Amino acid sequence: MEEFCSFVPVYSEEQRKLIDGEFGRIKDEHFLDHAGGTLYSERQIENIAAELKNTLLCNPHGKNAPSQKTEDAIDILRYRILQHFHTNSEEYTVIFTANSTASIKLIAETFEFTNQNGKEGGLFYLEDNHTSVLGMRSYSPISKVLTVPEAFEILGSPSEDDLHHLPNTSSLFVYPAQCNFSGTKYPLDWIKRVHSGGLNGAKGLKARKWYVLLDAANFAATNNLDLSIYKPDFVPFSFYKLFGYPTGVGALLVRNCSQQVLQKKYYGGGTVLMALALEDEAVLKSSLAERFEDGTLPYLSICTLNEGFNTLKRLDLTMKSISKHTFNLAKYLHSNLVTLHHANGKQAVILYHDTTFENNQHQGGIVNFNLVRENGQHIGYAEVMNMASLNKIHLRTGCSCNPGACQRHLKLSSNDVRKHFNAGHVCGDLNDLVDGIPTGSLRVSFGYMSRKADVDALLRMIKDCFIQKPILIKFPENWKILQENYINRFKGHHTKNNNMYRNLVKPTEFKQEVIIRNTLSFDAVDKEFAGGILKYIFLYPVKSCGAFAPPKSWKVSNSGLEYDRKWMIVNSNGSCLSQKQNPNMCLVRPVIDLEQTTLELTFPDEGSIVIPLHDPNRKTLSLCESKICRDRVIGFDCGDAVSTWLSRCLRCEGLRLIQQIDHDVARVNRQGQHLQLSFANECQYLMVNLASVKWLRDRVREKENGYSESLESMVLRFRPNIVIDFEEPFIENELEAIDIDEITFQTAGGCTRCQMICINQVNAQKTKEPLITLAREFGGKVKFGVYLGNGGTRWGKDTLVLGSDVQARKKTSTE
Hints:
Layout: H1 13-21, E1 30-31, H2 42-54, H3 65-84, E2 92-97, H4 100-110, E3 123-126, H5 131-134, E4 143-146, H6 148-154, E5 170-176, H7 190-195, E6 209-215, H8 219-222, E7 234-238, H9 240-243, E8 250-255, E9 272-276, E10 281-284, H10 288-292, H11 299-303, H12 305-314, H13 319-337, E11 340-341, E12 349-351, E13 366-372, E14 378-379, H14 381-390, E15 393-394, E16 396-398, H15 403-410, H16 414-422, E17 433-434, E18 437-438, E19 441-445, H17 452-466, E20 472-473, H18 479-490, E21 529-537, E22 553-557, E23 560-561, E24 567-570, E25 589-593, E26 598-602, E27 608-612, E28 623-628, E29 631-637, H19 640-650, E30 656-660, E31 667-668, E32 685-689, H20 690-703, H21 711-717, E33 722-725, E34 735-740, E35 743-752, H22 771-777, E36 783-793, E37 799-801, E38 805-810
Parallel strand pairs: 1-15, 3-4, 3-5, 5-6, 32-33
Antiparallel strand pairs: 2-8, 7-8, 9-10, 11-20, 12-13, 13-14, 13-19, 16-19, 17-18, 21-33, 21-38, 22-23, 22-37, 24-30, 25-26, 26-27, 28-29, 29-30, 29-31, 32-36, 34-35, 34-38, 35-36
Helix pairs in contact: 2-12, 13-17
């Protein structure tokens, strides 16, 4: 593909083949969220399984031979971990925890901010910190935030303060070695400067003794942390970010000479030399690790860490080579993104960084950005994520659990964040734009096994889907200012800066062309009502499987169409299976026979299986609990026969078919409320306007020469329950209520679409349409169809009849 800046490989061809050989499951997937958790090697898991199969390990608190062997293995791993960070047990102690957050929490709970005389120290933290650090404020009597510019200014030169005359208090400074939002690497020599009192006087906080917690969760995954040079007091990190496996195991490295500031109150099993039950008396063990590791360690998981280190050694990888490799990938992506411009000359990408990716001592393997349209409007990260998923590209969206960095880079004030929250946006959701302002961004991060092909796939998707053609390749107008700011910020830190663009070719300029986009423009209709015809009724007895179309009529109920989404397929973990994981589910076709009271399921070349609509043996069936959209759902397991059939058809072992129970506790939300809802995601019914589908199909045909798909096939992509032909496209978005033959439904908002609509429900083939056209035509507001709720029935009607007249009331104007 056309590149502005080429990728410089770090690994040899032989090494690249060796790595690729241990990650065969990736194939054509492009995983770009290694800061969230990297991938494990297949051979790594095979070796772990073999080791567990052939070794007897048990609780190390016992004193039998296997437990002693397990304890020895764990202690040897402590030594290996310290060696990895270029230190030893005389300097640091390894305390095993659940993860980095658990390590940070442990420090917050035990750090002695207040001395015996009641004098108080405090907590200083950098604004660019993980959410877990913000939680430490609850334990400190004084908490002060240090902005990034303040930190560079205050800690830019060594402190000459005499600490002896200061109050005899202890204070803690917390900052990340590498920002998990932007990938900025903060100077490690800040540690020594803080220890020397470099923060005294900053915002009025003074202390005789300063400690440093260096959050290495993001840094340690792809960088070399040399604790023989830099000596923070506390270093939390997680192993799954380094090795991919196991999860649930992290560590806190504590500098031995700093342990006296940690005052532990709680104690659990394995941490005491003696404890009395009838009196409040206990004596804790003298070893730092033994005092702080309450209860039984996850010893099986800890013992698998050895194979993680072995994998890096087997693949001939060092943390320095991994750091360079991930940085070069990020530099390659950043350098190509920064030059992308729409045909009208407007910049297509907003990048959120403190560096211009000049060297890997200042910047890690993370690229954070948002996309903008040619008219300057932001493209929501949910829209980009949906398109990326279609292309098997997996990245992170939102604020990446770093509120401070997110606010700083997106220029969001505290009031902006409150406004977004009041508008319904919360951490981790897909509410990406509020009044056109982004609530988060897109983060790409790399691991040691990442490939140039992963970056190329992302660049190709962005160019194909989000940039007005012909694309202009040039530097942004403010590029020189960005470079100068970067050089000034890091001046005096680490090594001399070099301009990475000095020897690059001059950017190619393309002739600009005028491109006219199709836009929606419907004349306002001064009518209070809209009329239509009920064209189709669809129900989906098994959630995420094929549709059943009644030939004439069908009953409605408080929870939706009768038998709609009353069954669902769960995997071996009990989680609901959907077409996002297995597109072939749409080929499981249902037929309901009301006279025989049966549900028949068919699948190509696999025959069929019949199950009763109401199993007479329900009392003997096992109850199962699962979740749908965070709601707790309860159902009956339909037995082994249908389980075996489904597993064979969908080529996935351990599948079970669950039927929803009938009573009130069938579905309960997180607030404990009982819902009158089947296994559907959002609402009782989904309505689609046939005229809107026709309009969309015509638009796709205009853009995709030779595109051919039947109208019914296009309708089924949206998986509606009720299809009405209003003759006028998108009038459904203006409606308040719909009457179908004396049955009233209330509209409940538009349905936000994802990559599910790109699965052809007839043949299970994945395409990029119609999602691309929807996103383009509606400026990223990818909604299609309207949810309906029961508004109450009149005159006892409870059946929808095909061909019925439809009368809809429009929403009352607020103007």
